[in-house]
Write a structure and sequence with these properties.
380 residues, alpha/beta, Rossmann fold, 2 domains, three-stranded antiparallel beta sheet, 9 strands, 40% helix, 11% strand, AB_hydrolase_fold
């Protein structure tokens, strides 16, 4: 406002002649223009020189790091880091760029999110760094491929089990008559585990009932049990009992189920298949299309007899294993209300909620799932 008043205030002049309006808007003098231009040019040149120095120093540091890594193999080197070169000559004999067309910003993290999660982990301080992953009904070990990669990059040991008639296991799921037969690959694995060695057991979907069964058999070999959108039963309960709770409310699940009768239509069903056209809506409503495609050609029928079997779980054995539950709020197969009913009926040590996860968080939220699994491993 003061500047505006100064402009409007009449100014004294030495001459009676009024200054022309044209002169009041005259451009700056040539000397002023040249001076400003020279200042900008000098500033621009200085900035370019500073950038070049910084870039050359960064490249030199990267080259030194790479040389040390080649010599002793003790320093990790991330080849995905994008580099900017001050001139074309430096591109020769240099490390390759990433496939990203965007140059790395100083604000970008130097490590991917899962590596940031792993940074503060001392594996030797954990009770165990060994995960055993158990798939859900119709799935196979293949569904854990993202989780396996993330955990192994963090230095964890991982085994994913194909239960009988699942994944690459050649047995016909229609011929499975009991839960012990279905989980035999898992019980065989734990039985061969060296004495004193423990694992973190992770079960998804119907895999929750499977890990509960082996928790009763091998409580001393299981450090922690993690239920992911899984059937977490109480003694005397079957997985069918859990699904019966939502029989009237989950029309999508009812429509997706296809009962198979290999012993004849007048006998009990032998397995349950799922309508491929409804897989995405039921199991993968938040998952990438490529993972939905993988599942559609990899899923197999779910044996029916194990789903009917009621578990016998004791406080002395099953109850001695520390349990954790990961909820999936966008789940259309086992809705969050059913998950919370199971949690309330048999409260675990801690409950986590994976925001935005569908029934298959290993596809829809692999980074978030990885973070929670690592966090659970660190709980003393």
């Amino acid at each position: 406002m003061g500047n505006l008043c100064a402009i409007l205030e009449p100014q004294p002049s030495k001459k009676k002649q009024q200054p022309s309006k044209r002169l009041s808007n005259a451009p700056p003098s040539l000397s002023q223009y040249s001076s400003n231009r020279w200042a900008r040019t000098r500033s621009s040149r200085k900035d370019k020189i500073d950038d070049a120095v910084i870039q050359e120093q960064a490249i030199a540091a990267a080259a030194l790091l790479f040389k040390q890594h080649q010599q002793n193999g003790t320093l990790p080197f991330d080849r995905s880091a994008s580099l900017r070169f001050p001139n074309a000559a430096l591109r020769k004999n240099s490390l390759p760029r990433s496939s990203s067309s965007r140059a790395r910003s100083l604000a970008d993290p130097l490590l991917p999110p899962h590596q940031l999660v792993n940074q503060d982990i001392k594996l030797e301080d954990l009770e165990t760094n060994h995960y055993v992953l158990v798939h859900g009904g119709g799935f196979g070990a293949w569904c854990w491929y993202k989780t396996i990669a993330l955990l192994e990059e963090g230095g964890f040991k991982v085994d994913a089990i194909d239960l009988t008639g699942s994944g690459v296991h050649s047995f016909d799921s229609n011929n499975i008559t009991c839960l012990s037969q279905y989980v035999k690959p898992l019980t065989d694995f734990l039985d061969k585990l060296p004495e004193g060695e423990k694992v973190i057991l992770v079960g998804h979907d119907f895999g929750g009932a499977c890990i509960s069964y082996v928790m009763e058999l091998f409580p001393l070999k299981i450090s922690k049990a993690v239920f992911i959108a899984a059937a977490m039963l109480i003694s005397g309960q079957s997985t069918l009992d859990i699904f019966s709770q939502q029989a009237g409310s989950n029309d999508l699940l009812r429509r997706a189920q296809i009962f198979l009768y290999s012993n004849g239509n007048n006998q009990a069903p032998t397995s349950i298949d799922l309508d491929k056209s409804l897989l995405k809506d039921l199991l993968f409503n938040q998952s990438p299309a490529k993972d939905v495609a993988l599942a559609s050609v990899s899923m197999r029928p779910i044996p029916f007899a194990p789903v009917l079997e009621k578990l016998s779980l004791s406080d002395l054995k099953y109850g001695s294993v520390r349990r954790f539950y990961i909820e999936t709020p966008e789940d259309n197969a086992i809705p969050i209300t059913v998950q919370e009913n199971m949690i309330n009926a048999s409260p675990p040590e801690k409950v986590f909620r994976l925001k935005g996860a569908d029934h298959s968080p290993f596809f829809s939220k692999p980074q978030g799932l990885h973070k929670l699994l690592v966090e659970i491993s660190k709980i003393p």
